[in-house]
Queue: 2 jobs
Job 1
Amino acid sequence: MTVKLQVDSVSKSYGSIKALENVSFKLREGEYLCVLGPTGAGKTTLLKIIAGLLAPDTGRIFIDGVDVTGQPPEARNVSYMPQGYALFPHMTVWENVAYGAWIKGLPVKKAEEALKTVGLYHRRDSLPHELSGGQQQRVALARALAAGSEILLLDEPLSALDALLNIELRYELKEMVKNLGLTVIHVTHNTEVALSVADKTLILRKGVVEQVGRPDEVYLTPSSLFVANFLSEINILEGVLRGIRQRFLMIDVGALDSTIYVFSQGFIDSWHVVVVYRPEDVILSRTPFSDRNVFQGRVETVEFLGFLTRFFVKVGETVIRVDRWEGKEPEFNEGDTVYVHLPPFRGLVYPYPKAGLIKELAVE
Amino acid sequence: MPTVELKNVSKKYGEITALSGVSLRIEDGEYACIIGPSGSGKSTLLKLIAGVIQPDSGEIYIDGRLVNDLSVRRRNIGIVMQDILLFPHMNLWDNVTYGPLVKTASYRRAESTGMRILVEMGLTLRRDALPSELSRGMQQKVAIARALAAGARLLLLDEPFGSIDPRASKNLRVELRKLVKDLGLTVIHVTHNQEEAMSVADKIIVLRKGRVEQVGTPVELYMKPKTPFIARFIGGETNFLEANVTSVEKGYVHVQAREMEVQLPYRGSVTKGERVVLTIRPEYITISPFKPESGENVFEGTIERVYFLGPFLRIIVKVGGVRLIAKVPRMAVQPKVGNKVYVKILMAHLFNYPEEGLEKAIAYE
């Protein structure tokens, strides 16, 4: 597949604030990229630069191998759907979608196709307020599609929807753009969206790319503590690296008053470390079934969430979260004595952040 | 001690029926959540209990006492809303003790109440802070502290986490539940977030179009939905299939949904030949390259899509003309698109076909 879009060393400052710093990535034709990051990470700035609404201070944008950095938005073959899409309230669905083509004096055939794609052609004569939130969102999307561009830039397109509609529409959206063969950049702060529909996920933090990769890559092998914490609600144990035995790191964890063994994934350039366990990787049992990395604890809180049950287990001076995907009445109750297992092959170890834990873990 | 009971309560705004014939009971010390789509009457219900508006008909009892004619102030209720309303120029301590003082408690009593609440909520170290110096989550905690300091035993919460970022609100909800349980309060909490309700509630009341659709514990609503609407609204994505009953015998019902014949335990609500709705939760579908030993509800299928969601995979699998969504825990070897697999359905729910049509019955906007 050919490279459709290339962002090459792009930087942008607003006064003394660096919004983007040396951002580079490539997208192949038909790829779906999710850009994930906290508020203020530079996500929207990145979209605007690609759309041509903002000029980068340095760096270049290539579309189909052509340098478009100096070109205006309309010359770029890019559709941009800003956050908080606004439909014209006094115009019908059809007028909203066809408006762009109409003022440019282009045929409205694309508008018709776009409305059919989002399944709302039969509502073309309705006014926006007569539609539900999900339908309005689809109309806004049809408007972006109607321009016929091959690259679609979406800024939080699902954020106005409630949880269930968000889930349903995200997969619908993905199917739609796949079928149309579009290359998409979808900006979101919702981790689940970014993992589920993306072919590739890019994590931005303070204008810098922290990691780019397939969703399973970034989730399973986060490049930093920040990424690990941003992608899911993890357990974090502070410790001191005492030694290495047969590729297992021996780490003294004060909060557990014990030494735990974690399989070494790579070189750790620090004695002061943090050990990360995702809640779904921790195992709970009534009786211990191993003699290492096992701790007795007491179930403090049980959250039954349907498919998922989350247990908060007090172990020593800390609370460990454990997720079990069981979809039935919880097996353990509040007050139960349980054993918490931290499987050595599931732990992630990072150097203790220089800026301190609180700063490293801030997600908003 | 506060129990809350509604008997046949109705409320209209002009032509629009907000609530019609709502009866329910919330026990002393119970944490109840009211959920439902927008426009289902959640806020109206809460306002009626608070006494901000009056019902057109029906009775409202608090502590067994009819309160229809009792003003808000005399109902002894703590109210916390989505918009965090603290006095911006007062520090945390003054915000919390203001209520008791206005209610003409002595300074000493106001101080001891305020102190107790602050200790309970872990806010003592921030007592001199102004609201603007606190995070939104912390501000909402202060708002709750203030509501409690005035002596309320019944707490009404209207989307209390609506303006707090999702990560912080997940921690806050656990903390809030613990606190109200320790204090033995009765809570009625309105939310549009079904996960939040599942997490904190002893009892969930689901409203739909101004009526009570189902009342139950989180486990009951998830395991035994009474209507297709509940099956869709609770527990995340669900598969909906239209089917026909092919046989009813020996305690089992067989239904045919296109190429799939599914067998379910008989619950006595359907007859042979009847058109029905079958719902299958994605997590009650297993996918395996090998044929499972038990032969019921096993089908051959083809994997059409695999989505990675972190702890689990969302898989679209095609069985004949039926597209099913399955959710399976993350595996060492990921299934691939195009793979032939065996699909086993572990549990399904059966409903009579709704008169209004399936689409309308599960619509929630």
Job 2
Amino acid sequence: MVTWVILGVILLAAFCAVRYAVRKAKNGECVGCSGCKGRSGCRCGHTAPSGPDGR
Amino acid sequence: MAIKLALAGNPNCGKTTMFNDLTGSSQYVGNWPGVTVEKKEGKLRGHQDVIVTDLPGIYSLSPYTLEEVVTRDYIMNEHPDVVINLVDASNIERNLYLTTQVTEMGIPVIIALNMIDIVKKNGDRIDTHKLAAALGCEVIETSAVKGAGSKEVADRAVQMARAGIMTRPQHTFSGPVEDALARIRELAADLVPAENARWYSIKLFERDARVLERLRLPADVKAELETIVSDCEKQFDDDSESIITNERYQYISGLMKSCVQKKNAGMTTSDRIDKVVTNRWLALPIFAAVMFVVYYVSVSWLGTIVTDWTNDTLFAETVQPLAGGWLEAAGAAEWLTGLVVDGIIGGVGAVLGFVPQMFILFFFLSILEDCGYMARVAFIMDRIFRKFGLSGKSFIPMLISSGCGVPGIMATRTIENEKDRRMTIMTTTFIPCGAKLPIIALIAGAVFPEITWMAPATYFFGIFMVILSGVILKKTRMFAGDPAPFVMELPQYHFPAPKGVLIHMWERGKAFIIKAGTVIFVACGVIWFLQNFGFTAGGFGMVEDENMSMLAAIGGVIAPIFAPLGFGNWQAAVASVSGLVAKENVVGTFGVLFGLGEVGEDDPALLASLPTLFATSASALAFMVFNLTCAPCFAAIGAIRREMMSAKWTWFAIGYMTGMAYIMAFIINQLGGAFFYGVPFGAGQVLALCCVAALLYLLFRSCNPDRKMRKPATVGAGA
């Protein structure tokens, strides 16, 4: 039981990681770059993460 | 309705620094021009209804560069409520050229006289009251790096926007020009908004192609406009654009005399430092020494101490035993313990182990950049690049690529010459990015621990590959042509702002950690699964011998390709291919295969196991060279695809990089093995010598100037 619960957690984490990476890739952004917004490609350091409140 | 404030100014005058200060953002601030290639938006701190836009740096509002077009179109089409014009007070004369244009646009302007601290330090004085009166707009002294004055400027701009205060440009041209402008204004009165009429009149006088295209003047109006402009040109015996430019500079010259007092015309501290740092003979050795120290401290000395602690103490002695013990106690299956401890923690831990080295490297690179030295490096490299037919403009993306190849590739947008731009895209990822640092540290630490210059040498090898490729490619029809001129303003040296340095370092390091927690995490899980499962006589299941695994089977198919490079085994082949997902994966794969996180990079177990993958130390070097210079990761390939806007060019770039990497690794393995490790001379060495001869031919063959002048390259155009 423990094995399957832990495996489930790992698979869920892997799914979330893949979905995050795919979404980033679809938008032309690179993984890990918080500044990437919009569809004009990764702009690591080239674009703003909006306001200080994160909105 | 939201108030829109726009930050406009010359390149490298501190716009992004002020933007970060005003919005609380942590945008990358480069100490060289061309960092901001697109406009950026953020909300003003404490004002949810005020949007601040950081525009790309420009010298004028002529439509000659992408940045100028972006900025101009934004101001004319988006109508910001106030333009905050940042003026570099230490280079005020040149900066005011843009100011004279911005004040004519019919949009309220406030001037932020930035870097005033440098002016004061130099003992110069600027009469801001006189300047404000002469320009017809408010002038506020600021020092964005120190956070001084930024808030005052923004608050005043918001007040201006709310009160609807307009800017009345005080500058007038000479009589005949003003007469012509008045006639043009009358002529186009129905076609342009009244508040922008003066700016449009001037642009029509200059025959600005984009404005003419936008206004679509009727034929009779066009003819009359041409008569007005031609008459004026005859009178001045000059073209209309030059007339306007000359008169602007005459006006600015007058402003300088009345508003600016220079303490002395002698050399500033920056000039004195530059005399040494950019000296014809000393510049390159100083650059080499600086980069040696940076890489030595980051990778070989201080970085290794911290990384060893992370690998040996944190992961090997703490995290892995804890996780293993907990899983066993919880009754988890043995294979799951293997997946978590060896696969995930081993692989991700191997990559995370290099985080300290990365932080230290970026800390130093940020300091070098922020203090102004890296801008000098671009200047120094321009002199060298030009000798090989390349432009120093190509070096800016390469400087950015030392962090990450993706923004480096995007930074090529500032290169107007399409051939140079494509060539820079194809070569910029030769410079080792942060993700490649673990590969360098691993091979240098495990195979060449006694060679302290190995890590710094990889950086210079990247530059060497760029120059080599540049010379070779420039001699082909596709890339032939004179290098584009590179004009770059060198910023004044200053002490780096700790906040900026730390933000830069953190942003890069954070991206690395997130990548390790997502892409590397999944990749390591997959690698572990493929390494531990396979088809045996009993069917599909876990295998005792990893040579029977699926990973070994897949790697075994690819491995022969790498045999001439000295690492024709499935482990090294799989590690190289997994690097396409992310370069850190090369080390992550070794982490899973050898339990790097468990043993640490300088552990005797690893020292014994890793070199067994390579025929000789030359093969290990070939492995490192191949993985540093072959096709970049998928994210960078995506960036190449977007910037090339052509599938053909993208494939050409990937093929070129991988081909060059293969040839270089082949030469290193074959000749290095023969000359230094006693490998007998054979067919491989002969072929390697042929490759060297071919490269030398491509390097030194004469370039046929007639062929240069033939029709431009068509490969991939429009594909």
